[in-house]
Design the sequence.
């Protein structure tokens, strides 16, 4: 069964696989690494323009390592899950300093780098170096879970352990790079989450989920959970020039390292932080933003102040501040909340 599995997948890839994606051209470990990190939690069509701009600005390890955090986050703006960008930057600096700008090529070394797990490490070395390693991204999990009719949520350790065993079992003895890409393509284009094209699938003959007549029953969905609801107040401080005060968030946590409007637990603490008498205060419509583990309800307070040619930090007792004119080019990365609030304000003005 193992030989026919890999052979069927590779045969399908030769006539239906994707071979013209940007990161497939000159697939160096660096180029593949960038693409694999961008593709986590993000669709290919969304990633392509980001990847092209990123590679144009940071064509190699050294250029990425030497760049400022603001520059890296600016290129990531809109992709979400910003920890990925911070880890890319950190990893590039580590490779520059410890590996003389040469991406390591052993599984243990690559897996030890920030933001790279077992599956991503295997994908990088398989796609860029044709090494034989299994991968287990979301697409591959779905293909294997259906093929073997594996019960249980893949996030459970026992189920994940079994999926890894299946991934290793089906590895070919040659053409590993093509096989790895083929497995990702199969899950992305045919064995999709809600409407799998089973009649076109090269694995349909032995697929156990298809034999049961219920392919979409696998993999078992994530157990339902109630998301926590969090409430906060954000200050939109506007001076008489129409500029807004932005604060750079701490390097870790939600929107880490990005520029945003200051956030407070409630209105009283927000207003108490001001070191100047507001000219006017108005409450805007609450902004709701969903995260993986909670939903944030952000109430914006638009506070007009007189700019007496004072430094921004004199307005509030905070560091890392600057004035920003809505609609103008900004060199750093803006949080999605800041982007939405600025867009709303621009439309209202």
Sequence:
């Amino acid at each position: 069964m193992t030989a026919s599995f890999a052979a069927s997948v590779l045969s399908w890839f030769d006539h239906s696989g994707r071979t013209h994606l940007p990161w497939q051209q000159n697939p160096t470990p660096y180029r593949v690494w960038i693409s694999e990190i961008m593709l986590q939690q993000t669709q290919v069509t969304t990633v392509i323009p980001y990847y092209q701009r990123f590679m144009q600005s940071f064509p190699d390890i050294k250029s990425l390592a030497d760049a400022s955090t603001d520059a890296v986050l600016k290129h990531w703006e809109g992709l979400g899950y910003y920890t990925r960008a911070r880890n890319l930057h950190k990893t590039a600096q580590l490779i520059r300093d410890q590996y003389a700008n040469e991406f390591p090529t052993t599984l243990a070394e690559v897996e030890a780098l920030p933001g790279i797990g077992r599956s991503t490490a295997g994908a990088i070395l398989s796609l860029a170096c044709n090494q034989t390693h299994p991968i287990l991204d979301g697409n591959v999990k779905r293909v294997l879970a259906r093929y073997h009719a594996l019960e249980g949520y893949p996030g459970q350790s026992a189920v994940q352990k079994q999926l890894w065993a299946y991934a290793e079992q089906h590895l070919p003895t040659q053409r590993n790079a093509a096989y790895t890409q083929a497995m990702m393509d199969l899950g992305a284009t045919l064995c999709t989450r809600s409407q799998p094209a089973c009649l076109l699938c090269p694995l349909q003959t032995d697929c156990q989920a298809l034999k049961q007549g219920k392919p979409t029953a696998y993999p078992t969905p994530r157990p339902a959970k109630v998301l926590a609801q969090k409430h906060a107040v954000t200050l939109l401080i506007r001076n008489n020039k129409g500029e807004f005060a932005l604060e750079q968030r701490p390097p870790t946590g939600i929107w880490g390292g990005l520029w945003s409007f200051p956030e407070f637990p409630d209105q009283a603490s927000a207003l108490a932080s001001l070191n100047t008498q507001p000219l006017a205060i108005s409450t805007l419509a609450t902004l709701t933003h969903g995260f993986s583990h909670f939903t944030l309800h952000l109430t914006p307070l638009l506070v007009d102040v007189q700019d007496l040619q004072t430094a921004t930090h004199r307005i509030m007792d905070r560091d890392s501040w600057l004035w920003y004119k809505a609609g103008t080019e900004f060199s750093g990365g803006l949080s999605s909340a800041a982007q939405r609030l600025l867009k709303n304000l621009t439309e209202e003005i």
About this structure: The radius of gyration is 24 Å. DSSP finds 15 helices and eight strands in the chain.
